[in-house]
Amino acid sequence: MRIVTVVGARPQFIKMAPVSKELRKHFDEIVIHTGQHYDYEMDKIFFEQLNIPKPDYYLEVGSGTHGYQTGEMLKQIEKVLLKENPDLVLVYGDTNSTLAGALAAVKLHIKVAHIEAGLRSFNKKMPEEVNRVLTDHISNFLFAPTETAVKNLYNEGIKEGVYLTGDVMYDALLYNIKIARKNSNILKELGLKSREYLLATVHRAENTDNRKNLENIIEAFIKSGELIVFPAHPRTQKYLKAYKLLKKLEKAGNVLLIPPVGYLDMLVLEENARKILTDSGGVQKEAYFLKVPCITLRERTEWVETVEDGWNILVGADKEKILNAIRDFNPNGKVYTYKFGDGKASEKIVKTIEETKNEI
Ligand code: UD1
Ligand code: UDP
Questions:
Q1: pLDDT, tens only, 16-71
Q2: Longest dimension (CA), the chain
Q3: Which residues line ligand 1 (CB under 6 A)?
Q4: 233-273 pLDDT, tens per residue?
Q5: How far, in Å, are 19, 52, 181, 183, 265 from residue 176 at the CA level?
């Protein structure tokens, strides 16, 4: 059986690392990289650090509007699928690369497996929500990370092909955290001490492309007076410049703006932060796994367990709410990582494919 994996954005490289390792014990895998992310620190650094197999096809689609990006990917992925004629196409998460991969496959009557199926923020203004809903509805295998995800699918009438496997990002974290603790020098490099800083990431369109929202977030960071380490996504760097917020940050002096970091450095920065501020899906979960309080700069989250268990608070881009949370949000209950599986989601996914391969 031949399996094509389609990836293109930072979190997908992290998600595919444990799955690909497992998959290659049983199947031939062909990797298509759409080129959605392409800067070294958004792309190659992950392939190098996580020993991810080199892509067989690099489509170099790059940046652009949703229509351009998704359309260009669709055209090029279709060409590869026609040439390779795989039995199954594997897609991850909720980016434009996910939707393009699934759509190209389904139209050619190739079976689709969606890893991280069933998540919902119930906000269709977020491009990720559109991508995940559409991908789920055209997938044959829906690998759900949580029970909530299974319920969401059920509520939309998707009952067949759904497998509760746990979260592959939890697999990735468990495998890499020890390596990160041993090999990363990031705290030393940045002159940081454990628990003496906050960590922030911001990149979602609803925050970066909206001037008021990004201004509110940055003003809250500055006003907090806390040392905030802020590895900024290229999208955010672009808008910080466009909205003339860079100068404000420089003048304030308490925000350490740095380029995006590799996964191992990121895990160490997360584990040692006193609190994390983020609009990232993956970072919210990692904060939970590592028992670090998370202040989420969004109105809604698809990772509801982290909020229900008290370790995550949703503050949107509201300056006062952000400041209050920086000051007062101090959860101290338990985390229940079993809700995200047992660190063997990748094995379960591959086992399921193996067991059902005759139906494919
Ligand atoms: C994408 C996903 C988002 C995911 C994020 C992970 C979609 C719709 N969004 O958002 O769900 O959370 O990836 O990080 O698929 N850029 C660079 N260099 C790069 C990559 C991007 O400079 O290597 C800049 C470009 O100016 C580009 C902008 O960042 O226009 C946005 O990139 P894009 O891939 O369109 O979306 P992300 O914000 O990265
Ligand atoms: N990440 C990283 N370096 C950074 C920022 C994030 O390695 O500078 C990792 C983070 O640890 C998590 C993943 O990227 O595993 C999350 O991806 P991102 O925030 O880009 O996208 P999202 O999860 O919101 O889709």
A1: 999 999 999 999 999 999 999 999 999 999 999 999 999 999 999 999 999 999 99
A2: 63
A3: 9-11, 36-39, 42, 63, 94-96, 127-128, 203, 233-235, 238
A4: 999 999 999 999 999 999 999 999 999 999 999 999 999 99
A5: 14, 13, 9, 10, 11
User: Which of helix, strand or coil describes residue 210?
Assistant: coil
Within 10 angstroms of residue 191's Cβ, the number of other Cβ atoms is 9
User: Of 69, 62, 52, whose CA–CA distance to 13 is shortest?
Assistant: 52
Distance 128 CA to ligand 1 centre (A): 11
Domains annotated for the chain, with CATH where assigned, are 2-167+342-355 (3.40.50.2000), 175-340 (3.40.50.2000)
Query: For this structure, is 203 an active site residue?
Result: yes
Residue 44: which residues within 8 A CB-CB, separation 6 or more? none
Residues with CB under 6 Å of ligand 2 are 10-11, 14, 201, 231, 260-263, 266, 280-283, 286
Alpha-carbon distance 210 to 215, whole Å?
9
Distance 178 CA to ligand 2 centre (A): 18
